[in-house]
Every structure is written in C-alpha cells, then in structure tokens.
UniProtKB/TrEMBL annotation:
Organism whose genome encodes this protein: Rhizobium rhizophilum
Domain of life of the organism encoding this protein: Bacteria
A Pfam family matched in the record: FCD
Lineage of producing organism: Bacteria, Pseudomonadati, Pseudomonadota, Alphaproteobacteria, Hyphomicrobiales
Database matches in InterPro entries: GntR_C (IPR011711), TF_FadR/GntR_C (IPR008920), Tscrpt_reg_HTH_GntR (IPR000524), WH-like_DNA-bd_sf (IPR036388), WH_DNA-bd_sf (IPR036390)
Annotated keywords: DNA-binding, Transcription, Transcription regulation
Domain HTH gntR-type: start-end pairs: 16-84
UniProt xrefs under PROSITE patterns: HTH_GNTR
Name of the protein described by the UniProt record: FadR family transcriptional regulator
C-alpha cells in the first residue's frame, strides 16, 4: 500500500464481484461453524443453486479458500474443511470473518500479542525513517481520535489510518506486507458492537498516539517502541471489555 492510499482507507469492505461475494459467504460459513472441521462441503450443484453462481465462479472461489488454508480438495473425497491450524489467520479476510462470527477473550489476547510483536518494532523503524510530512499526517489523525466533532466510524477510521501509516513509514517491506493484518485487526476490534464510551476514547487515546508522534519527531526509536506498546495495550483492554460486554448481553 502506498502512503497516498492511507487517506482513503475505510472500515467497510465493499464486495463488488461475484467471486468476492461467494468467497465471503463460504468463508463466513466455515469460520462461523456451519461447515465443521473435517466435514465435506456440499456438492457443486447444491452450492451453485444456493449461491446462484456459475460453476466457474464457484471453482475459483474454492481455489481462493484453499489458498487461505480453509479447505482442501481431494479426488474421490471432495472438498473438506481443514483443521484450524492450517487456516491463515493473518489473512485479512480470514481475520475479518472471525470478528464477524464472534471472538473470544483468548482470541483477542493472541491477536494483540502479535500486534505487540509487530507494531512497536515498526514504530522504532519509523522513528528513523519517517518524513516530516508523515509526522504531520500522523499528528492530524491522532488529534481526531476521541473528537466530539466526529462520529464513531470516523474516529475508527482515523485510528486505522494512523496505525497503517505508522507501519508504512517504517519502510520495512516485510512489515509493510502485514498492513492487511493490522487493518483487519483494527477494523474488527473497533467495530465490535459495544458502547464507544467503554473503550476509553477521548483525551487519553489522543495523548497515547501523540506520544508516538513526538517520539518520531525526536528520532527516538525506543520511545516510539514504548509509546506504541502502550497504545496497543490500551486497545487490548478496550477489545477485551467489548467481548465481555457482548457476552453479558448474550
């Protein structure tokens, strides 16, 4: 992703093609448990009728799901759902399907553990490589967080753009390849059905993110690493609270 693309990031994923829609429906059905681990998927004729698609679109969708590790096709056996250990959890779609289907505290903890590995390191690189223009834009997004003038989705998108730009500013191609994972993590964690007031937004979240920008401007990698870790841990607490709130409502 280019830096210019960050400004257009949105929370909602638009599915425009038949292929994307079929992958979405089947992916959600698998992750959500409609098709159990090890179970065969319905035959082509049944799925074509249910999804109202052609055989070619269905087969391409199956190839996509196989590439994500969710299914495996074998001759004389058919297409079966693989064990979860084979699922590509860092895939943007697979991660989003988990959030849509419902996640546990354990899932959130594991997710934020990985964010704690990746993003503070990326911020440290950004402290060495971010441009003045990057810092200006990051400060702009930080100041939007918790704004009383923005609705909840707009605050989420500001947070999303901040963390994606921070990763790109680190200019490490391997970390940049994780942008989709980071985006899906933020999309899911911040758009779960819970009261934004419970998430600790407002001045606290703005100050946490401004501390990251301050560290970048000072070219201080360690300060950037620590500040980013604090912001992620705050996000972990908010996401866990959202899971608990959702469970209590259920």
């Amino acid at each position: 992703m280019r830096k210019d693309d960050v400004r257009d990031l949105r929370v909602v994923t638009n599915l425009r093609t038949s292929h994307a829609k079929v992958v979405e429906k089947l992916g959600l059905a698998i992750v959500g448990g409609r098709f159990g681990i090890g179970e065969p998927l319905p035959g082509d004729n049944e799925l074509e009728s249910e999804l109202d698609v052609s055989r070619s679109v269905l087969r391409e969708a199956m190839k996509t799901l196989a590439a994500k590790g969710l299914v495996v096709a074998k001759s004389r056996v058919g297409t079966r759902v693989t064990e979860r250990c084979h699922w590509n959890l860092i895939d943007e779609d697979v991660l989003r399907w988990h959030f849509t289907s419902g996640v546990t505290r354990e899932f959130i903890d594991h997710l934020y553990d990985i964010r704690m590995v990746l993003e503070p390191a990326s911020a440290a690189f950004a402290a060495l490589r971010a441009t003045p223009e990057d810092c200006v834009e990051l400060r702009h997004y930080a100041n939007l967080l918790g704004s009383n003038e923005l609705d909840w989705p707009s605050q989420v998108e500001a947070d999303l753009r901040f963390h994606v730009l921070l990763t790109i500013a680190g200019a490490n191609p391997f970390l940049e390849s994780m942008v989709g994972f980071i985006k899906a993590s933020l999309d899911g964690a911040f758009t779960m059905a819970f009261d934004p007031d419970l998430a600790g937004r407002g001045e606290a979240i703005t100050e946490l993110h401004l501390a990251i920008v301050d560290a970048l401007e000072k070219r201080d990698p360690e300060a950037a690493r620590v500040a980013t870790g604090r912001a992620i841990q705050q996000g972990r607490a908010a996401a866990l609270k959202a899971v608990d709130t959702s469970s209590n409502k259920g």
